[in-house]
Amino acid sequence: MEEALLQARELIESTVNLHRRTGARNSIVTLERDEAVAANAIEVLIGQARHGVSAALPEGGDRAKAVGAAVGRLTAGGRKRIPARLLCTPESLGESAVRTVAERGGAHVQLRVTEAVAETLIVDGRVAMVRSRLERGGEEVVSVIEDPALVRALDLLFAGAWGSAVQPAEHEWISERLRTEPARRILERLCQGYTDDVAAREVEVSLRTYRRHVAEIMRGLGASSRFQAGVRAVELGLLSSND
Fold first, then answer.
1. Roughly what angle, to the nearest 10 degrees, separates helices 2-21 and 148-164?
2. Distance from C-alpha of 10 to C-alpha of 157, rounded to nearest angstrom
3. Is 80 exceeded by the pLDDT of residue 29?
């Protein structure tokens, strides 16, 4: 999944650069390279939401704080609550503004965790804000996009990443239980399709103990088969696709 998300970022950046080259300047606006300007744009875009907000936050800092604060105002009592989905990495999950809005927003604010994601904000499926890289110099810029086809593509990429992400509680369980060396060795063998008896010998436990560990891992990953558990482990960044 991490590789797919990185490819998605490349797609976003190439598409944004293509739009710049073809002159579609009314549908893509590049903001000044100023965090305060970007934070203000986040607040304005989220404040205009009428149907829903989706935000992918790869890291903490000013932009994550701005998203958390704006979503908090959007979902506060006394007005129609707009649903919001916040897709975090472990880094941005630690941002207090993000955790606070998720706790206070109740069912209107959903929070999921993934290992890698491209920074994206999508409002009502009609306008998006992304951080991308310029072709020359490799500088990162923030772009506000209103091109319907590109916003739709970003929405689909976000949906795919969201579907493979996990709840915060599940992320904590995975971090505590499945990032240990013994768990990794078992996951590697699940991913490679080893039989239970061969895998048990290689990890140096009894067959009964191995199967107990496998059953626990499968429950934790929400997998219905050993193969699915291996695939899920790759999606969650517990293993690389080459393991």
1. 170
2. 12
3. no
Residue found under tokens 């604010």: 109
Place of tokens 């205009």: 48
CA distance 26 to 28: 6
Residues 6+ apart with CB under 8 A from 135: 17
CA 71, CA 54: separation in Å to the nearest integer? 10
CA distances from 84 to 16, 65, 75, 110, 201 (A): 25, 15, 8, 6, 47
Are the C-beta atoms of residues 122 and 151 closer than 8 Å to each other? yes
Q: What was the pLDDT predicted at 1?
A: 45
Q: What is the pTM of this model?
A: 0.70
Residue 4 to residue 121: CA distance in whole angstroms: 19
**Strand bridging mode 127-133 / 140-145:** antiparallel
